[in-house]
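Posting this for the archive.
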Amino acid sequence: MKTPTTQRVQKHRDGLRAAGMRPVQIWVPDTRREGFALECRRQSLLLKGDPLETTTQNWLQAVADTTGWQ
């Protein structure tokens, strides 16, 4: 037998599906994991001075809409 919470969640999901939505699961790096910051630094240093990276960064800055950011 489904609990009231399970029934409510199922009703919500059914409504989303009826609206044409579907669930998607994604996996992202665990930023709390030991060594995460070191790996970020390692990868960043690999890009240091790379001309394509500089071009990409310049383009991102040019097209970014930062209106209202603090």
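Residues 26 and 32 are 17 Å apart (CA to CA). The chain has a mean pLDDT of 95.
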